[in-house]
Design brief:
Layout: H1 2-9, H2 15-32, H3 38-53, H4 64-72, E1 86-94, E2 104-113, E3 119-129, H5 131-134, E4 150-158, E5 163-168, E6 175-178, E7 183-191, E8 195-205, E9 210-212, E10 215-222, E11 231-238, E12 244-249, E13 254-257, E14 261-269, E15 273-280
Parallel strand pairs: 1-10, 2-11
Antiparallel strand pairs: 1-4, 2-3, 3-8, 4-7, 5-8, 6-7, 9-10, 10-15, 11-14, 12-15, 13-14
Helix pairs in contact: 1-2
Length: about 280
């Protein structure tokens, strides 16, 4: 299917968009006339549900009540405010070609919580752009779809009040964009064809730990960039010295103590995911 779409792109401006528009109309037209085929309807509904759950399709309605419902389900594409909990969303905007599907991106997030509830955070993004994958992708074609090398505007969305302390692997200036609902570290990332890059952002956060009687609650929300494939995210949370883990959600991949409790998670980011840790200080 991708071969067909990108072949149509070579035939003129917007031809692929016209083709997809006609294709979608045909799909919905046939679906509506197949009411007697329960099997086909179930399969189509299953594919659509997976697409919205994995943020490949975003929903918007003219009806405000319907928009509130899909927003509650996480199907609207809205970014959740990052004002009272830890938060991370990595967003790449391709600059000049169509090679995104040939870019393998992995995320690592390390956070150390001190006794006051403040965070020292480090977000690491690894990019791999192998020729073995790109050669099979019809979108990677310098004749029609831009240069081979990958250029991206990278945005690292973090909680409000985050203060950037250091970066590694960045060759362009990093700008902090302050919004009432998120702070973002913005820069350009270049990944040459058949190579890889790693960029890292170290920053501090305000105290975002919730007190629940004798316990403390740490919450991290990982939001997936809409339209991207499932990514592997490694999360390591270092609790204050002397703290005791009471409960985690999801179940930790590993938990150990090196002068302070450390809890690790391995998350497949197919959609938005939360990490919650309840601990006693």
């Amino acid at each position: 299917f991708r071969d067909l779409v990108y072949d149509i792109r070579t035939r003129g401006e917007n031809q692929h968009k016209l083709f997809l528009g006609d294709l979608y109309r045909q799909i919905f037209s046939q679906w509506q006339t197949m009411g007697s085929s329960q099997e086909v309807s179930t399969r189509i509904l299953g594919v659509l549900l997976q697409a919205v759950q994995e943020k490949h399709v975003m929903l918007y309605f003219r009806d405000d009540r319907m928009n509130q419902i899909v927003d509650t389900l996480g199907w609207s594409g809205r970014q959740v405010p990052a004002t009272d909990h830890d938060y991370l969303m990595i967003a790449d905007a391709n600059l000049g070609n169509k090679s995104n599907r040939s870019i393998i991106r992995q995320l690592t997030y390390d956070v150390a919580i001190d006794a006051s509830g403040q965070f020292d955070s480090r977000a690491t993004i690894d990019y791999d752009y192998p020729s073995s994958l790109a050669e099979q992708d019809p979108a990677v074609d310098p004749e029609y779809h831009g240069p081979l090398d990958y250029r991206s505007l990278l945005q690292v969305f973090t909680p409000v009040g985050s203060l950037l302390r250091d970066t590694e692997g960045t060759t362009f200036d990093v700008e902090t964009v302050e919004d009432p609902l998120h702070y973002a570290f913005v820069t350009q990332v270049d990944v040459d064809y058949n190579s890889g890059e790693r960029v890292q952002f170290s920053y501090t956060n305000l105290a975002l730990i919730q007190s629940l009687g004798d316990y403390r609650h740490y919450r991290l929300l990982l939001q997936k960039q809409p339209g991207t494939p499932t990514e592997l995210v490694s999360v390591q949370v270092s609790l204050p010295p002397g703290a005791t883990v009471v409960q985690t959600q999801p179940e930790a991949a590993a938990s150990y103590d090196l002068d302070r409790p450390i809890v690790e998670f391995r998350i497949e980011l197919a959609g938005d995911r939360s990490v919650d840790i309840l601990y006693s200080p």
